[in-house]
Predict the 3D structure of the following.
Amino acid sequence: MFFVAGAKKSAAAGRGNERSRSIYQKFRDVDLLDKKQTVTARKPGEDRAIFLGLGMILSSVVMYFVLGVTILRSYAESVWTEEGVCIVLNSTVTADVNCSYSCGSECWRVSKYPCLQVYVSVNNTGRVSRLSHNEETQDTSSECFYVPRCQKDSAAMHVMIMNISERLKANQQVPCYYDPSEQQETVLLTRLYDHSVVFHTLMWPSCVFTGGALIIMMVKLTQYLSRLSEEIGKIKR
């Protein structure tokens, strides 16, 4: 009787252990399925994030190239690098200059604007130079201080030029940029591309590049931590 009772107890314990292992296996299978679903759902999101980061980096490289060909090249080639103080010696209108404006498709008409010539003394050195508004004006006209946008109303352009002349005469001293090597006799009132313009121009592509690199780094860090967590979990099991 004792052996029979012991056998029954052993059989019952075995069935209990098998039932426990079966329940544990089911929970483990569910856990593994959840992990697989999480990994499957995570991978497309990580791929999209990496593609986004690479796209941002590529866009910033293109922006760097475009800005380097345009703004940075103009800034580097400019000879008006030194800033000084110019004393206005003379500001007079010498003659009228013809210009053309668009009046429609393949239609151009002629108008006139007064040519204002301004001569200044740079830094009280006695060096007399002609003052130009900026690099674009210097390239457009080698004689006139300012070249307005050509329009039909020549009287309006005349009034604008005369106001500029009166303003220069009233200020007498104005900040200007000159060529320290004195190869370029003309001095500029303003520069199209100075240090602040170059800084703000390069800031945006730099931010885009940094953002793309950070996205890729965060995705890679997340993947590394996920693998590390899985390895730690295997060691504990």
